[in-house]
Design a protein that fits this description.
By secondary structure, this protein is of the alpha/beta class. Among the domains are: about 90 residues, Dna Ligase, domain 1; about 160 residues, ATPase, nucleotide binding domain (Nucleotidyltransferase, domain 5). The chain is built from eleven helices and 19 strands. The protein has a six-stranded mixed beta sheet with strand order 11-6-1-2-3-19, sandwiched between helices. α4 packs across α10. The longest helix has 25 residues.
C-alpha cells in the first residue's frame, strides 16, 4: 500500500487468540483496522504454551481469518506475553560523567546498562527495562537528561522479566506458523497503551487487566510506569467456582457467567431461578440466580482485595487521582466497576481501545485492549527496535525508543 504501513498485533491469551491487522496513513496517528481474527486458545494454559502443535494450529486459524478479512498477508507481528511467568524488579544504575560534561545518548545507554546488572534467577531473562526517572547530580525526577550538564547520572528503572522457557516456546509456536516476531510486549503494557491517555499517566492511574487465568496490574505516575505485577486469579476461576456452586459442567458454568453473570447480588431476587436445560445439553436442573451472583461477587471481591493490597505496598491505595481503568473480557460482568470503586476507594471505569478507525465495531471491546495496544506500540515504536530477539540485548536505537516512551 502506497504511503501506508501495515501493522499486525497478535494477542495470545489463555482463552482467546486475537489477531488484528491495521494500516496507518503517513502523518496520521489513528490506526485503521482492516482485519480481525479470533480463535480459541487451545494449547495455551496460564499464558504459557502447553501443546506446541495445538497452539500453533489455533494461532494459524486466527492469523488466516485476519488475512482473509484484510486481504493482507501476515509475515510479521507484535506479540503479547502474559501470565504468572512474568516477574518485575526495580533497579538503579549510576555512572560518572567526566568533567561536568554534557550528557549524551551514549551516557544514557551506559546508565541503563548499569541498571540491568540486577541479580535474576537463572531461568529469567529481561524482556523490558523502563526508566522511571533520572537524576543528574542533586537534581532528581529528570525525565530525559540528554543535553544537561553534570558529573553523575543515575536512573531508577523498572525491569520486566519472563521465564526463558515460556518465551522460547512462544517463539517456536510463531516459527511454526511462518510469522516472525517484531517484538514481544507484556500484555499490561500493551493494554495501557490502548486505553490510557497522557494526562491519566501524569496524574496517576492503575490499569487492571482481568484475563482468563490471571489479573495484570500496572501503575503509572508522572508519565511512566512505577509498578506492575501479575496476580494468579482471573475469569477462569469465576467459571470454576460456578461449576462447583451450581453443580454443572464447565461449559454450562461459562454460559451462566456470560448470560446471567452479575456482581449486583442485592438487585437479584431470592426467588429467581435459572433453568439450565435452556443453556445446556448435559444439565437439566435449576439453580438460584441469587446464588450465582453471590459466587461471582465473591471471586471479584477477592481480585480487587488483592489489587488493593498491591497498591498499599507502594503507598498508592486510594491515592491515584485518575483512578483505575479495567480491561479484559472479564470486566464486562455487570457490577464489576461498582465493586472496584467500592473496594479500591478510587474512580473506576472500563477501558476501551482508542485512536482507531475502520471496522471499529469489531474491536470496540475491553477484551481487545491488549491487541489494539500492540498496534499502538507498532505505530509508535516500529521504526526503532529496543531489543533484539536475544532478550535484553540493547541495540543502537535503545535511547531513541525510551525518548519516545517518556512524555
Amino acid at each position: 500500500m502506497a504511503n501506508q504501513k501495515v501493522i499486525v498485533g497478535l494477542d495470545i491469551g489463555s482463552n482467546k487468540i486475537r489477531t488484528v491487522v491495521g494500516v496507518v496513513e503517513d502523518k496520521s496517528h489513528a490506526i485503521n483496522i482492516i482485519g480481525v481474527g479470533i480463535s480459541p486458545s487451545n494449547g495455551i494454559r496460564k499464558g504459557m504454551v502447553s501443546d506446541l502443535d495445538e497452539a500453533a494450529t489455533n494461532i494459524t486459524a486466527s492469523l488466516e481469518e485476519a488475512e482473509r478479512m484484510s486481504g493482507e498477508p501476515v509475515h510479521r507481528a507484535w506479540v503479547s506475553f502474559s501470565g504468572p511467568s512474568i516477574e518485575t524488579y526495580d533497579s538503579k544504575g549510576v555512572i560518572a560523567i567526566g568533567g561536568n560534561a554534557e550528557i549524551t545518548e551514549d551516557d544514557v545507554d551506559r546508565v541503563l546498562d548499569a541498571a540491568r546488572a540486577v541479580s535474576l534467577p537463572a531461568n529469567r531473562e529481561i524482556l523490558r527495562i523502563i526508566p522511571k526517572s533520572f537524576s543528574v547530580d542533586s537534581q532528581h525526577h529528570v525525565k530525559y537528561p540528554v543535553g544537561m550538564n553534570g558529573i553523575r547520572l543515575e536512573v531508577e528503572a523498572h525491569i520486566i522479566a519472563g521465564q526463558v522457557s515460556a518465551v522460547k516456546n512462544l517463539e517456536k509456536c510463531l516459527y511454526r506458523t511462518g510469522v516472525s516476531i517484531e517484538e514481544i510486549i507484556p500484555s499490561y503494557l500493551a493494554c495501557a497503551e490502548a486505553v490510557l491517555d497522557r494526562k491519566q499517566k501524569e496524574l496517576g492511574v492503575a490499569v487492571i487487566e482481568i484475563g482468563a487465568s490471571s489479573t495484570n496490574l500496572a501503575v503509572f505516575e508522572e508519565g511512566t510506569i512505577i509498578y506492575s505485577t501479575v496476580l494468579p486469579v482471573g475469569g477462569e476461576h469465576v467459571t470454576n467456582d460456578l461449576a462447583i456452586g451450581a453443580r454443572a459442567a464447565i461449559d454450562t458454568a461459562d454460559k451462566l457467567k456470560i448470560e446471567y453473570g452479575t456482581c449486583l447480588k442485592d438487585d437479584v431476587s431470592e426467588r429467581e431461578e435459572i433453568d439450565l436445560s435452556q443453556i445446556s445439553r448435559t444439565d437439566a436442573h435449576t439453580v438460584s440466580k441469587k446464588q450465582i451472583a453471590n459466587v461471582i461477587e465473591a471471586r471479584y471481591h477477592e481480585i480487587f482485595l488483592m489489587v488493593r493490597d498491591e497498591l498499599e505496598k507502594i503507598g498508592r491505595a486510594g491515592m491515584l487521582p485518575a483512578g483505575v481503568v479495567l480491561c479484559g473480557s472479564a470486566v464486562k460482568t455487570p457490577g464489576v466497576v461498582d465493586l472496584a470503586r467500592e473496594i479500591l476507594g478510587l474512580p473506576a471505569q472500563i477501558g476501551f481501545p482508542r485512536d482507531i478507525e475502520g471496522i471499529v465495531d469489531r474491536v470496540d471491546d475491553p477484551g481487545f485492549s491488549t491487541v489494539i495496544g500492540l498496534l499502538h506500540f507498532a505505530n509508535r515504536y516500529g521504526t526503532t527496535r529496543s531489543f533484539d530477539f536475544d532478550f535484553g540485548k540493547i541495540s543502537d536505537s535503545l535511547v531513541s525508543f525510551f525518548k519516545k516512551l517518556l512524555p
